[in-house]
Amino acid sequence: MQDFSNYTAEDYIKLYDKSLDELIEISSEITRKNFTNIVEACSIISAKTGECSENCKYCSQSKHNHAQIECHPLLDVETVKKAAQSARDNGASCFGIVTSGRVPTGKDFEVILEMVKATKSIKGLKCCASLGLLSDEQFKRLKEAGVDRYNHNINTSERHYEFICQTHKFSDRIKTIKKAQEFGIMPCAGVIIGMGETREDRVNMALTLSELGVNSIPINFLNPIKGTPLENYEDTINEEEILKTICIFRIILPKAFLRYAGGRTTRLSKENQEKGIIAGINCIMVGNYLTTLGSTADGDKELLKEINMQMA
Predict the structure, then answer these.
(1) How confident is the model at residue 312, as a pLDDT?
(2) Do residues 129 and 160 make contact, with C-beta atoms less than 8 angstroms apart?
(3) Is residue 76 part of a domain?
(4) Which of 6, 117, 272, 291 has a 20 to 30 Å separation from 225 between CA atoms?
(5) Residue ranges of the chain with pLDDT lower than 50?
(6) Which runs of consecutive H residues, i.e. helices, occur in 146-223?
(7) Is 107 helix (H, G, I), strand (E, B) or coil?
(8) CATH number at residue 255
(9) Residue 145 lies in a domain
């Protein structure tokens, strides 16, 4: 097997010039070396939706944008626990509690801590939270409540970040990921592909995650939503480019769990979803996303069965 550990960013960018079949052959060999045919399943709930103060251009929940979505305040603990139990019954081994906004405060944060405890009470289910730019004290309490992972995506490269969001900086996201690590919480930090970034940007995203030591990486594909500044970005990346990017992420991050996340059912055909798993995806998000529809657990189990893989 070829050793890519001494490659530079420029070397990784040149890999895009290889044929898709050749790249999949390389990345799938790396995947087989480091993982079995078991694919982890996770699920999320939008515990609070809409009215977000941040101006991320891709997001339907930002109050700066004009997407028509159904907003709701923080859900109650019992509703979240029922959703977590349903996720576990459908095969998920990790359940994510996601809230819109820069950071939860006051009573909302206290309720979220109870949501974490309720999720952790379900046998065999890990708890992930995605709550924004938390303080040290909030991370401390979240860890005490039992959270296993903290999701905070870098979304894009440092160079491209200013184009995507202006209400906070790329460095704020890096700082939050490092804080989670400091408090003994595994970071789950991913990207969104197809927001006008270059191949160099994509390679730099993967290298940033590698340098941070992130081992759980959701790979989202932009699902352009009407009413957001990126609503017309559907043609900025094709399926072959998406698959090549998955391959290169696997090459740069040989032992990381790469997760199919938002956009995979709308941006990839069933055949290419299967190719992505063969190439290196070893976790999938089942069920719906935050404001868009996803896939069913049964459908994903059938998809995996066709390529001799199975859900954990």
Answers:
(1) 73
(2) no
(3) yes
(4) 272
(5) 291-293
(6) 158-164, 170-182, 199-212
(7) helix
(8) 3.20.20.70
(9) yes
Identify the pLDDT of residue 69: 87
The gap from C-alpha 121 to its chain's centroid, in whole angstroms, comes to: 24
pLDDT digit string (tens) for 112-150? 999 999 999 999 999 999 999 999 999 999 999 999 999
**Which position has the token pair 């290298």?**
207
Q: Which residues contact 58 (CB under 8 A, 6 or more apart)?
A: 155, 164, 192, 195, 222, 225, 228, 230
Say what the pLDDT of residue 293 is.
Answer: 47
How many domains does the chain divide into? 1
pLDDT in tens, 160-177: 999 999 999 999 999 999
Asked if residue 12 belongs to a domain, the reply is no
Q: Please report how many Cα atoms fall inside a 13 Å half-sphere around the Cα of residue 51, on the Cβ side.
A: 10
Q: Domain limits at 58?
A: 18-311
Tokens describing residue 106: 């006051």
**Spatial distance between the Cα atoms of 129 and 34, rounded to a whole number of angstroms:** 27
| Strands, E assignment, 161-305 | 186-188, 191-193, 216-221, 257-260, 283-285
Q: Give which of 169, 253, 134, 139 is closest to 205, Cα–Cα.
A: 253
Q: What is the pLDDT of residue 35?
A: 96
In contact, 191 and 256? CB cutoff 8 Å: no
Distance CA 24, CA 293 (A): 28
Terminal-to-terminal C-alpha distance of the chain: 28
* Residue 13, domain member (yes or no): no
Please report the pLDDT score of residue 288 as a whole number.
Answer: 53
